[in-house]
Predict the 3D structure of the following.
Amino acid sequence: MDSSHWFNLARIGEFAAWFMGTMLYLGMGITLGYHRLLTHRSLKVPRFVMYFWVAGGYLALMGAPISWVAVHRLHHQKSDQDGDPHSPRDGFEHALYKWMFTMHDRQPPEEVRKQVTDLIDDPVLKIFGIDHSAKQAQLCLWVNILVRVGILLLFGPVAFVANLLASITVFWSPQFVNTFCHLQNHGYRNFEVRDDSRNVPWVGLLAMGEGWHNNHHAMPRSARHGVRWFEFDITWCTIWLMEKLGIATEVVRPSMQPTSAVSVARAAAVKARDDGAELVNKAREEGAELVKAAENAISNAAAKAIPTPSEANAP
Ligand SMILES: [Zn+2]
Ligand SMILES: [Zn+2]
């Protein structure tokens, strides 16, 4: 093999290392840092470890961590109902990316503050913004551009291109979770919950274990999203390892399995509640129709009982 082949192999290896490294660090920056650590408090880690993971999410263009948490907590409170920031019920493109441009009006600064009382005083996190202003988005964009320029200057074009492609892939992963994992004709459900959340295998793998989204909506605080043997969750594997190494403590585990008595009872309760709500609505509609019919009958009867002027004047 001549030297040019070695050169090419080295380049391929360099590309692969940068691509995979970026995918893992930035991807878990979102899933482990922004999502499971900050938003759901699924585990505890020393502060510098938290900053390490959160920095990965910031470098995936996720914007201010505090603002991201405020959006995601709102999503869990209003999933697929009025007020959900990015439900596909409001349109596919809205769930995929258009929602980002609505947050400034949808969640003003005082609403953000209400969602993140536990994070708002963090001296580092608050530097990056606590609202949905253009200013915090621009800051994130400039930091991201500067870091990529640094990679280009320090490590060369192969590292730069690999990092850029992986960053773009990672940026879209949570958008795919928001969209495909709330579409009723995709994936499957392990748990009956009041929203449309689904487990979608290809999103599960791409988004570092976050595509097992129905499991997550059923047990939002769990640090583990994949609960069946085939639901691979690399973020959970990393948290598990961090716990074994003594870096992570108070790790919240799933409270139920898809086949457990608790989940079956819960599914039955959800179904009974939904059936009950349907019956109440039906009774309400039928009641309204009956009231209307009765009112019509009364006004008809009244019209017949009151004599017309000609009848009244008749001898
Ligand atoms: Zn969701
Ligand atoms: Zn969540």
About this structure: DSSP finds 13 helices and no strands in the chain. The chain has two domains: 3-254, 266-306.
